[in-house]
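Reopening: structure tokens for the zinc ion complex, inputs below.
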Amino acid sequence: MTEICSICGLPKDICVCEKINTEQRKIYVVERHVKGPMFVTLVSGIESSKDIEVLLKDLKKKLACGGTIKKNEIVLQGKHKKKVIDFFVGKGYGSSQIS
Ligand SMILES: [Zn+2]
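Re-run output (same inputs, fresh job):
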């Protein structure tokens, strides 16, 4: 008996939906100058708002900085681009998926 994928209708052993889904995901990490000595690091591209909340919590803990969520973007206080990229690589993202 072959299981059928509910997205493409192909048998599960030749279906690539899940693979495509993970590979197409792209995370954007941008450092932005606010004013004076203040910088923020913006993280966007995360689709689920539930994931965003969990990631914000993890990132704040790991980077020991303040942070908030604005319009589906994570806003971290300070310049953390490199550390944020390391964080996502540690979660299994390929470095080509993060920019
Ligand atoms: Zn499929």
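The longest helix spans residues 49-63. The helical segments are 17-24, 49-63, 81-90. Marking as resolved unless the reporter disagrees.
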